[in-house]
């Protein structure tokens, strides 16, 4: 009986602590404030008969997650598990006010907690995961991350669905990509499923930060850095894996009228090269792009279209994968994206679009090299229909204009009544916000 009483008290105490932000606000006679505009409630519910339901998905289709067990190098040592997770909740004075979903600027606001997992080879490998109040990191100035950019990261989102449940999108793919980046950086690899469970707990604790609107979401930034305080260019025997959360607005919501983007395509600059790390999500890939983005902005253009090689191959657009819908030389409609040849980041949105489009069977779907010569020729022959970038941040971003070698190439992406980019955007966001039941939308509660 005593044991039962203690259990109930512990359980109650935990509930109180996890919901402390609500109690404090109630005590202050305020309405419970969450990242909300209330727009979600107006959204069409999945049970509405007008809402297009996706066909029942056959478990043998490629939509089902296929996370293969990761093969760690023996020297990595012990792995962490989510069952070791320790939670230290923020004290009332450490809680931050939540911004309105309408005022969200990408990556500016952060939630109350973070997840940290240390790695020390001399202590046997990965240490116990810990959720704690958001805090600054204290690192030795010689830490390898500061000198040789021993750093990698991921970008994922948690969405509050129309059913009120929180979902993340194909997280096993982020984990596979993160481990691939860790391997290339000489950083320790980890069990992706365990890390997903730890991050899900973090999101659950900070759940009121997941915007109550389809126009926004909670961005997850898992990061892995080498922290060994020695200046040798060598693998780091100590590392820190952490996740911070930031509520972010959508670039635009599906169905909304949106403007196409304009691009600078300058063959003097390249983002990735064969044998390099363009296919890994490492911080060192991004710093050298900042000046070129500034140049594009100075020319009144919004993003950079990254080219490679003497034949000016189109690789990526800004921090998105590139897609082109055209009528090919044989007169067929064809959706094309550059192949995963080492120059291209294997985007989760890219992979999802390829799966959906192949399943729709409305047009040919191809992964092949596209050159600016082909783009120009097809454009003059009126065979280009749409171009768009695709990524977690904006889902799909239609392209309207490319400034290339002194010429403005006008792309008719926005000239169609029912464009493919919009069909893709709607389907993906419907899965993410739970309007379409789909194995890619993983509920975390
Ligand atoms: C260079 C680059 N390409 C493509 C993408 C799109 O990848 P994902 O769809 O996984 O967000 C990103 C964003 O992560 C990126 O940084």
TrEMBL record:
GO terms for cellular component: mitochondrion. NCBIfam families: ilvE_II (TIGR01123), PRK13357.1 (NF009897). GO terms for biological process: L-leucine biosynthetic process; L-valine biosynthetic process. The keyword Transferase applies. This is Branched-chain-amino-acid aminotransferase. Its cofactor is pyridoxal 5'-phosphate. Its EC number is 2.6.1.42. Keywords: Amino-acid biosynthesis, Aminotransferase, Branched-chain amino acid biosynthesis, Pyridoxal phosphate, Transferase. The modification N6-(pyridoxal phosphate)lysine is found at residue 281. Pfam families: Aminotran_4. It catalyses: L-leucine + 2-oxoglutarate = 4-methyl-2-oxopentanoate + L-glutamate; L-isoleucine + 2-oxoglutarate = (S)-3-methyl-2-oxopentanoate + L-glutamate; L-valine + 2-oxoglutarate = 3-methyl-2-oxobutanoate + L-glutamate. InterPro entries: Aminotrans_IV (IPR001544), Aminotrans_IV_CS (IPR018300), Aminotransferase-like (IPR036038), B_amino_transII (IPR005786), BCAT-like_C (IPR043132), BCAT-like_N (IPR043131), BCAT_family (IPR033939). GO terms for molecular function: L-isoleucine-2-oxoglutarate transaminase activity; L-leucine-2-oxoglutarate transaminase activity; L-valine-2-oxoglutarate transaminase activity. Belongs to the class-IV pyridoxal-phosphate-dependent aminotransferase family.
